[in-house]
Amino acid sequence: MSGRQADLLLTNARVLTCDPARSAASAVALAGDRIVWVGESDDAESFRSAATRVVDCQGKTLLP
């Protein structure tokens, strides 16, 4: 996994990032109390391990 492991993975969300370079996404990876990655749900699997809790947000909006 090369050190890219999340404790919590939120997928299938409507993520509003407040970042002009990337205003929207569909997944967020968290390690401890930090957001370690924001991107698309299809790319989120690289952060998943056996210990990762995965939450399908079912299209709900997620804000920082």
Can you describe what's shown?
The chain has 64 residues and is mainly β. The chain has a single domain, classed as Urease, subunit C, domain 1. The protein contains no helices and 7 strands. It has strands at 8-11, 14-19, 22-25, 27-31, 34-39, 53-56, 61-62. The strands form 2 sheets. The protein has a 4-stranded mixed β-sheet, with no helix packed on it. It has a 3-stranded mixed β-sheet with strand order 3-2-7, with no helix packed on it. It is globular. The N and C termini lie far apart (26 Å).
Characterize the overall form: globular
**Taking Cα atoms only, what radius of gyration do you get, to the nearest Å?**
11 Å
Could you state the oligomeric state of the chains shown?
single chain
Order of helices and strands: EEEEEEE
Largest sheet: 4 strands, mixed
Please identify the top-level CATH class: Mainly Beta
- Biggest sheet, spatial arrangement of strands: 5-4-1-6
Taking all residues together, what is the mean pLDDT? 92
- Tell me the CATH architecture: Roll
Q: Give the strand content.
A: over 45%
Unreliable stretches (pLDDT < 50, length at least 5) are: none
**Helix content range:** under 10%
The CATH topology is Urease, subunit C, domain 1
How many strand units?
Answer: 7
- Count of all domains: 1
